[in-house]
Amino acid sequence: MTTNAQTDVGFHAKQHGRWHWSEFAFWIVVLAVGLAFPSRYLIMTEILRLALFAMSLDLILGYAGIVSLGHAAFFGVGAYCAGLLSVHGIINEPVLALIVGGLAAMVLGFATSFLVIRGVDLTRLMVTLGIALLMEALAERFSNITGGTDGLQGIDIQPIFGVFAFDMFGRTGFFYSLAVLFVLFLLARTIVHSPFGLSLRAIKNNPLRAAAVGIPVNKRLIAIYTVAAFYAGIAGALFTQTTALASLDVFSFERSADLVLMLVIGGSGYLYGGLIGAAVFRMLQELFQWITPQYWMFWIGLVLVVIVLVGRHRIHAYALWLPNLILKQIAGRKAAVALTDNEAP
């Protein structure tokens, strides 16, 4: 009986983990947009960084149920690590510096995970927020290292692999960020569709029941929190490498809060939610800032209220109503033509 149940679970997990045609279409569209709008490389690179950052939060919020308002702590550590490595010439290869920045954030994530898993939602919110504020205070305190409010000075990112130099138009930064996002997405997708990922879903749904069936709840939460910190650190290092900037703003509360808004827009619990939410959030921000520079936050807040009240699924159904109606009409006409052809002598 147990063997049959395990076989069924493994079969469904394998089926669910297979690539769907819509996933291929998503990445093809992303690449096509990048090639079609070369004048918008800078904002598209920013969207890619936000997408990676949002995906890191989705790993703990959407799959493990760990709420956080201080995810910017790991983003900031990765950003400053990449900047310091560049300023002091310790590591000149951007890809290697990117990995080191992620590892530095991962160490912080592992060290603080023991505090985060001890509480429930409200406690976790306060602990994660406190960690981010503490890191910002430390960065300001040691201004001789971080540059304080002025930020790091003299950041000069060398060409990737000694060949692809960062240009002022952002072309190299865009394709570099896209490659990093895609590789880390593949890794995250493997994680969430593995038995480890299934155990995270069980913990999120009912941690007591998960512990009762033998899942090491705390160890699983520590592991995914550490992985999410690594992803956030990579996003922070990408920020520094593609903008040549690193200041106290990387630890700001607004940066963490924006992630939650992105997941509200795109949805949590599936990796594409963070990617879509980041793109929609940044485009809405750009649109509303162009329409009304003073009150753009009001309109974004209104959009969020509408999403919460109406529901994301209903909005999705409304958006697809007209295309589905057109497809039904086309299918009906094809069926009528086929029936006429069959009846013809």
TrEMBL record:
Keywords: Cell membrane, Membrane, Transmembrane, Transmembrane helix. It holds the Pfam family BPD_transp_2. The chain crosses the membrane at residues 24-43, 50-75, 95-117, 174-200, 221-239, 259-284, 296-315. GO terms for molecular function: branched-chain amino acid transmembrane transporter activity. It is found in: Cell membrane. It is a multi-pass membrane protein. It comes from the Bacteria. One of its GO terms (cellular component) is plasma membrane. This is Branched-chain amino acid ABC transporter permease. It comes from Bradyrhizobium oligotrophicum S58.
